[in-house]
């Protein structure tokens, strides 16, 4: 049973999906081509890089494939190194994206499903094999989750379990979604995307211009989301960005009560396990994509006893 600690109720997120084994450690930090973050694909996710280098802060996306999804991904991490191949144009492109914005972290995934999957079955988030260590008490965690859930109502947290998880609906948490016919999809390297969800049908077809905010509200509701499907005949673009996670420092700046925020050190609490960029089908356990985000600080901190 998955219990949402902020609401004290069982949630729909994923009762059947087993927690995967921990990903294998990456190569030594001294060999990383980019720092302080290094990305890998965990073997358990069956996510194969099919073209390009798995880099971030590059205007050329890398391509990948899993048993249920084939696509490409582009990541922007504020205040982190570009790849060695970066040109002046790449640096201007990266600077232009973050200029004047609070955003610190963005990734875009674009591709096609290999089979139809109900929208309510696909979630994104983080999974950990070992218990989190040194985390604040339940009262404070509940308060912080309530604040975060205002911006992401589908968030589900199982923080104090032996295998902690934080999940949210993929379609209910993406900032922008574009559903297009092949050949009509937007450029994945664009700075901004236009919401385009009428191909979901139902309420989205009746109102051709459903806003991002309304789509997140509708598809965060499992009852409503179960009426829609991701279909293989369309190309899906999912744009995620936020200003809570600071990838350069590997911390999360969570809004607090009375305007005070709390900085959570990810490296301090995950016992050497990395954060992830991932999406998963809860009915089968298959990953749409899964990329581990290793920070060099994971290897410089003393392990808890």
Automatic annotation (TrEMBL):
Location of the region described as Disordered in the Swiss-Prot/TrEMBL record: 13-33
Q: Which residues form the Domain of unknown function at the cortex domain?
A: 51-295
- What protein name is recorded for this chain? Domain of unknown function at the cortex 1 domain-containing protein
Q: Which organism is it from?
A: Ostreococcus tauri (Marine green alga)
In terms of Pfam families, this protein maps to: Duc1 (PF08588)
InterPro entries with a match to the protein in the record: Duc1
Q: Where is the composition biased (Pro residues)?
A: 18-28
């Amino acid at each position: 049973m998955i219990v949402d600690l902020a609401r004290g109720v069982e949630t729909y997120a994923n009762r059947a999906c087993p927690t995967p084994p921990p990903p294998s450690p990456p190569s030594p930090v001294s060999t990383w081509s980019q720092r302080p973050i290094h990305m890998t694909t965990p073997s358990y996710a069956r996510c194969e890089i099919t073209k390009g280098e798995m880099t971030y802060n590059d205007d050329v996306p890398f391509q990948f494939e899993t048993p249920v999804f084939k696509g490409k991904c582009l990541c922007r991490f504020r205040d982190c190194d570009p790849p060695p191949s970066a040109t002046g144009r790449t640096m201007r492109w990266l600077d232009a994206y973050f200029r004047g914005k609070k955003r610190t972290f963005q990734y875009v995934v674009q591709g096609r499903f290999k089979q139809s999957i109900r929208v309510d079955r696909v979630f994104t988030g983080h999974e950990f094999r070992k218990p989190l260590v040194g985390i604040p008490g339940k009262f404070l965690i509940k308060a912080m989750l309530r604040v975060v859930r205002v911006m992401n109502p589908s968030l589900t947290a199982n923080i104090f379990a032996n295998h902690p998880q934080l999940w949210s609906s993929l379609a209910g948490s993406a900032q922008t979604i574009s559903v297009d016919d092949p050949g009509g999809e937007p450029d994945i390297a664009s700075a901004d995307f236009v919401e385009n969800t009428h191909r979901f049908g139902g309420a989205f077809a009746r109102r051709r211009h459903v806003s991002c905010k309304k789509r997140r509200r509708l598809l965060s509701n499992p009852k409503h989301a179960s009426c829609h499907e991701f279909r293989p005949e369309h190309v899906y673009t999912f744009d995620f960005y936020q200003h809570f996670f600071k990838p350069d420092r590997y911390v999360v700046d969570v809004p607090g009560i009375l305007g005070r925020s709390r900085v959570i050190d990810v490296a301090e609490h995950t016992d050497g396990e990395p954060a992830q960029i991932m999406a998963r089908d809860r009915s089968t356990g298959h990953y749409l994509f899964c990329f581990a985000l290793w920070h060099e600080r994971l290897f410089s901190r003393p392990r808890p006893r």
